[in-house]
Specification:
single chain, alpha/beta, six-stranded mixed beta sheet, 13 helices, globular, EC 4.2.1.1, carbonate dehydratase activity
Length: 317
């Protein structure tokens, strides 16, 4: 019986056209559809019916059957490859588990040393928040404001986006100006703090934009700081590209501060002195921090694209 099965396998395999090329992963992408689960253990008398059924099959069905059989044959030859693939996946999975375990330990440490040590404070925060700062920072994983400036739970209402930008009112609603509106009108924050940083990929994208007809989502977003790019080209065109980017990183912060003034409910509070607009720049290459405050003067007409006057500039190193 074994010889007869092998004979059928050889005959069927020989019928496959030489032009049919199978992927090494055919064992994964093809199935045993059309074969009985225990087809190798069929009694000898059933093999005759198989031979007859094979002869009656149309050419297209024969080809499909041959492909399924090839998939079964190839699977044995690539067992070692699949085993290596599984081992590699296991190592990736183990790395993920290790990181999750680290996060678990960090959380438990936070709970033990921070939460339990200030449990009454956290119970108060559960009822209401009253932050003094609204922070607008970049999404870059290297520049977490809470890590750099030590903001504690409840101290800063925060939103992060690509290149820490604030679009002007005329550009319509975004998650950033929605967060700013909530912070100013509902939480009554006293300061809006826009924080930029060195080596910002968003600003680099802005500086290399060519005005494509089909801009990417990132290009559309960083276009909110196109005024900063124009000013950089005017003021720092003689510098290297990296130096121009650094100049634009700071200029874009001032651009966002001016854009904040396009919102009437912000301008009104800044004019009255109940709200301050601050800019900050973190250079993680030298670990320095620069901070300044927008100097709002009623005598100057504030409009989108106007020059910014600053005061109280401080450099931390």
């Amino acid at each position: 019986m074994i010889w007869r099965i092998r004979s059928i396998i050889t005959t069927m395999a020989s019928l496959r056209p030489s032009s049919v090329k199978l992927s090494p992963f055919s064992a994964i992408t093809n199935s045993f559809t059309g074969f009985h689960r225990n087809w190798l253990s069929l009694r000898a008398e059933k093999l005759g019916r198989v031979d007859n059924a094979w002869l009656r099959l149309s050419p297209s069905l024969k080809e499909k059957s041959v492909l399924r059989l090839d998939a079964w044959i190839i699977s044995a030859g690539h067992a070692q490859e699949l085993k290596s693939f599984k081992i590699q996946n296991m190592s990736i999975s183990d790395g993920r588990v290790d990181f999750y375990d680290k996060m678990k330990q960090r959380f438990l440490s936070f709970k033990k040393h921070k939460y339990m040590g200030e449990v009454e404070h956290f119970k108060t925060l559960a009822e209401v928040q009253s932050p003094k700062f609204m922070v607008i920072a970049c999404v870059d994983s290297r520049v977490c404001p809470s890590n750099i400036l030590g903001f504690q739970p409840g101290e800063a209402f925060m939103v992060r986006n690509v290149a820490n930008l604030v679009p002007p009112l005329e550009n319509g609603p975004t998650e950033t100006n929605a967060a700013v509106e909530f912070a100013v009108k509902t939480l009554q924050v006293q300061n809006i703090f826009v924080i930029g940083h060195s080596c910002c990929a968003g600003i680099q994208a802005l500086m290399t934009m060519q005005g494509d007809e089909n801009p990417s989502l990132i290009e559309k977003w960083v276009g909110n700081a196109k005024v900063a790019k124009l000013r950089t080209k005017e003021d720092a065109n003689h510098l290297s590209f990296d130096q121009q980017c650094k100049h634009c990183e700071k200029e874009s912060i001032n651009c966002s501060l001016l854009n904040l003034l396009t919102y009437p409910w912000i301008e009104e509070r800044v004019r009255k002195g109940t709200l301050s607009l601050l800019g900050g720049y973190y250079d993680f290459l030298s670990c320095t921090f620069e901070i300044w405050t927008l100097d709002f003067k009623e005598s100057n007409a504030v409009s989108h694209g106007s020059k910014l006057s600053v005061k109280d500039r401080v450099f931390w190193c």
